[in-house]
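#dry-run=false #mode=assembly
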Amino acid sequence: MTYKPRFMTSRRSLLKGTGAAFIGLTFMPYKSMAEEEKKLNFYNWDTYIGENTLADFNSATGIEVKMDLYADNAELFAKLKEGNPGYDVIVPTNDYVERMITAGMLEELDQSKIPNMANIADAFKDAAFDPGRKHSIPYMWGTLGHGYRKSKVEDAGSWKASLVGETHSGRIALLGDGESVIGIALKYLGHSFNSVDPDHMKAAEELLIAGKKNIKTYADDNGQDLLASGEVDLTMEWNGDIIQVMAEDDDLSYVVPEEGSLLWQDCVCIPKGAPHPNNAHAFLNYILDADAGAHIADTIQYATANAAAKAKMSEEYTSNPGIFPSDEVIAKCEPSLYSEEKTKLRSESWTRIQAA
Amino acid sequence: MENWKENRIVFWVTALPGVFWLTVFFLIPLALIWGMSFGEKTSIVDIEVTGTLANYVRSFESVYVQIIWKSIWISALSCALCLAIAYPIAFGICFSPPKWRPLLLLLIILPFWINLLIRTYALIAVFRTRGTLNFLLEWLWNLAFMDKLIGPYQPLELLYNNGAVIVGMVYVFMPFMVLPLYATIERLDRSYLEASLDLGASQWTTFWKVTVPLTMPGIVSGVILVFIPMLGMFLVPDLLGGTNAIMIGNVITDQFKAANDWPFGAALSFLLMYVTFLALALRAFIGARSRGRVGV
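#status=ok
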């Protein structure tokens, strides 16, 4: 009997909680209202924002940010496909920005509300996938390359080491993302990353199937862990992931192979139906601020597209070739372009490669 | 309640929540996906249900048939191993002192309290080249002076192959097999076993001729409970499997995510369901026939 009153209060507070949840769930467009409620729903990758950014933004503007996390672009897209469940700000990669613009899933930005767009580095002021930057602002960018153990691997400078793989048989992991792996195979064969030419695709598929016997696994998003734990000596991975484990192990390194690679760019966008568009614009403007941008780059150690922020960063960061490859390397890299046909062909090819 | 027809109000009041739940959270979503399996993509986000069979036709391309077949044999083998290990465990729990039983059952259920993903990652830490098991084996190797006699210990490659996938599946689904077996073995009338032994049957004959037939309902529900989710598994092959690990669950996940082809993913899912229904119908048919023969 003693715990009966406690049960009552807990139920009452549960009711209160449900009420709050329903308020949170009424994602009505507040455009008609002069003032938006001081809230923002941010949908982001894990460990992809400055340590204090959200708290600093809150003290600067009074807007409370609630952040949810996703693991890959496909997850983000699948979640927003059937209608925006209430997010104000999302961080898709360039090809998904293009896909979402085509599908009409992104809100057009009101650039007059983002004066800090002036801080964007010249190379990123415009983008082929979003002409005039109407729907996106650049956030971080990087490359796909080889993460490797220096004492064991000497030939990481070419994709041959991981795709043909005879020199490190059984000690190699490739990425689990078929679209990128096939693109890299095309790049190694001297074609465009985005090629859908049947002959090119066939050659890439055959190359990957022939190399399978030397590959230990297609790592989902843990190639850096396999490398750090000594399970493999060579892995195809995103630069940021490898740079994180390099900080813990001096014997690890990262290189963009000589055949060139994929150049990716993550963008900050406002999805259609965002309940707090004004707050979202304020947030976009805030992360383009020099100090805020520098704090983010300092935490996550990816290459920032914010020139004013980069100018505030240490030499150690700006001269790290893993973060900022040379212009010569960048010239050989390509962005992934969106096409439904490419997605379908690559997905089918990837299934065949894995089943072979 | 003797007869629901005499007490309709009570019947409906008690049945309504269940019916509501089943309809809203199971039948309607399932019907939507079923409809989608006869649809086509008309744009990046839109799907139109046109009644096309193209998705099913595509499912019979050799690459998918090959993957489905592989999923079936991996699941069947894992399921058989699960049964072989779970049966003695369930038996042991049933024949243990009554005061121990709740604790032993708790130990079986305990892994459920930890997320599947984390349990699978834990298996990686155990089986990897520089993992717990290899360290243990190396220690034993050196303890037996094998390093002096033969040479240094060569770590076993335990991860990233079909064996690792099977071990992972058996580990993940074991409780689902033990619990139904425990439920039937506990109800087993032990006087039948005594009678069989008294009448001169050996332990072996008693087990196969008396125990197994009497516990068959538990075996069947355990197998159904384990085999069907194994067939659709994608996480374990993803994390523990090597370059050939792909199972039909992975293909379906890919359709709903990276490939963005929900109609085809829906068709593949329903193909699995048709196969399952067929197997269940077959079981009911065989069950009915054998009951008729024995005359129970």
